[in-house]
Design a protein that fits this description.
It contains 8 helices and 5 strands, in the order βαβαβαβαβαααα. By secondary structure, it is of the alpha/beta class. A 5-stranded parallel β-sheet has the order 2-3-4-1-5, with helices on both faces.
């Protein structure tokens, strides 16, 4: 599965939810942590593939996939890594109990050989949440905060186009305003005005 879309839209959360629904372990491979010296990234991918295939079931998640699978004609240094991926992906597809989920903010930057039909069963755009999803995000965010009466529907209307990450940031900023008030002896409850101002 390839997930793509802007930052903060919940691609990692989506991948974790897949693992949770399946009841399988979730293993995240971070491109920035694989291969600390030039030329070793392909070897690290090979080693990770061998180790992960030892598990009975696993959801393997690679975020920022474009970092390791960028177009070879534009980034010749990635040729060995892309070639290794071309071997790895079919191995995951052919082995029951293994699921590879990759995510990128830049789908157009990925080598076309990696994205061709037969490599990924699903290529899914993950965009900003719709109104129903934003309502659920606001309900979750405000349930963890000490708040006065909050008009969630106003917040949903004000945050059209916001990502889950944006809504989390708004909540943190509103909590920061309430914390600043609490330090001066004022009520520490987060108000609708705090949230609207943070939006």
């Amino acid at each position: 599965v390839m997930l793509f879309g802007p930052p903060g839209t919940g691609k990692t959360t989506f991948a974790r939810a897949i693992a949770g629904q399946l009841g399988w372990p979730f293993v995240e491979l971070l491109p920035s942590k694989l291969g600390t010296v030039e030329g070793s990234l392909a070897a690290e991918l090979r080693r990770a593939r061998v180790e992960l295939l030892q598990l009975d079931h696993v959801v393997v998640f690679i975020d920022e996939f474009d970092e390791i699978a960028s177009r070879r004609e534009e980034h010749p240094a990635t040729k060995g890594v892309v070639n290794e991926l071309l071997k790895t992906i079919p191995g995951f597809r052919a082995t029951p109990g293994r699921l590879l989920v990759c995510a990128t903010n830049f789908i157009h930057a990925i080598d076309s050989a990696v994205l061709r039909p037969g490599r990924f069963d699903l290529v899914i755009a993950i965009g900003p949440p719709d109104a129903a999803a934003r309502l659920a995000l606001w309900e979750a965010a405000t349930s963890r905060l000490a708040t006065d009466a909050i008009d969630l529907h106003e917040l949903v209307a004000l945050t059209d186009g916001f990502t889950p990450g944006d809504i989390g940031l708004v909540s943190q900023r509103a909590a920061g305003k309430a914390f600043d008030r609490a330090r001066t002896g004022e009520p520490a409850q987060i108000s609708q005005a705090d949230l609207v101002s943070a939006v």
